[in-house]
Amino acid sequence: MFSESQQNIKCLAHFPALIHALPGIRMNQNGHHKERRSCLVVSLNCRVKQRLARKSPPHLELHARIGVMSFIMAKKPGRNDPCPCGSGKKYKKCCGLRDPDSLFIPEEDRTGTPFDDYMDVFPFIGLIGQRIRHFEEDGPELNKLLAQFKKRCRPGKEDGITDSFFMSWMHLDLRFGRTLETIAERVLNDPMTARLLEPGPTLIRRLAESYLTFYQIIEPGPETAVLEELGTGKRFRVFYIRELYETDPIPGEIWFGRLVGPPEEALLYSTPYIYDPETRAQFKRAVRLQENDFRRRSPLASSFPRERHFAESQKEAAPFWAEFIVHGIEVGSQRLDEETIRGLSPGALPFIVNTDREEVVFAELSFRVKDEPALRKRLATLKSFEYDKKNDSWVWLKPQNKKDLAGSRSVLGNFRIKEGCLVAETNSRKRAARFRIRLKSRLGGLISYEKTLYRDQDDFPERTPEEIEAQRKETEEFNARPEVQELLRKEKEHYYFKKWPEQPVPALGGLTPVEAAKTEEGRRKLKELLDNYDRWQDADPSLRPRMDFDALRRMLGLPPRVH
What we know:
Number of strands: 14
Helix content: 25-40%
Distance between the termini: 42 Å
Mean pLDDT: 75
Low-confidence stretches: 1-76, 329-351
Strand order of the largest sheet: 10-11-12-13-9-14
Structural class: alpha+beta
Strand content: 5-15%
Radius of gyration: 27 Å
Oligomer: single chain
Shape: globular
């Protein structure tokens, strides 16, 4: 396993440890850790004990195919040249002492699957990471963050987090420094990456975009399994190498892990933590709270398109889940509530809020109607509420912002008249109080207040898969309507062309896009950011209107995207 002494090596000798740290830990539901985690047991298994039936290709051929060996041969310095690892030593006294093949997975440990390809590019991510830690300006900050994580979560220890969790978080999720980029993102921007052949850069990009989160086993199979992401409802067909983990997926189980690659052919890249099916509702609620918190509080939210917010929220939340796992809370027997969450990681996961930053509580107000015809006549004269003819209901909208007349208006509540009652609904206690006062002041003696019922989101039953699928289809059909598409397109263009250019963006060093476009370095970062937006949009299978980022590039004085 990845030992403390290995962590201080400053040359390429470090990378075999990085590689072997990633795969080897087995999870199941039996063992001596049961009293600490009711449905999770960790047992060490550092090597693949059984090879897959089909023969793997010779590793040199595989390395050449993804451009790794060609990079090494092209990059090899002279014996007296400075070592490219950044140690400050001559090459002959540093990495030149090692065989280049030692950077990669030994032939006997290869699986003969695409998993090997990802493992073969990981040494380059590790190389940049070591260079940053020991020789670059952001190194002290990175080392401090890693030391704090190790102290709290004890990676590699029997009572700590797995090495695969720590190594993947360190290189793929942790944002630090002035640019707030991960190590993997810095690899993509490093000139040496341009010397890799495809699919090398694509594999690194997929690793950089991956994240740790919760999935439910929907349909296990002999070589693949269908997993549903709890936070988004997306489904992935995952190639599963059971020889690495020595456990079979069971329908309904909740797996916490990292998937890499497109949904139709993803790979499980980290050792999974396995929980009972009964924990689904609590984990689903927790990751949705994290996404909401990211949108509301994180300075990074403006750096990413909305469809990327869930992924980034999970990258940001990874240390919280590491503490959750290490502290051994028994999910299922103990409620995963806000008090527990804040006790583990202060401020990491606050309650969900509405657009007025009020805690979401569903409120239903009931009024007795004294004269329905007179009430409807009165409502027809009011501008405070907007009538929805299709549903025979009224909508309470937030007043229009005079500085942003083109912006959309938030829905604060709605009400309907049925069987002699006026029933109003909103989503916070403060809004319920305001709604009651507003209705009484506008409608006077035509209605008489009776009661208000409050319900927390946990009070609602978990939806069945059939209900979820029906809701998905209904949403798709609604979003496909031309008038909805046009409204969404206008709102998206208003944000990116009017608001976003004047907002400080962490990925641009705190500059606004307009400010960044004035310097060469800022233009480079702005181009990379917009290229990422295009890639995320291309990968989004939904019916959301497409944004013309080339038009935004022209507005900012940047060249169009190179396809």
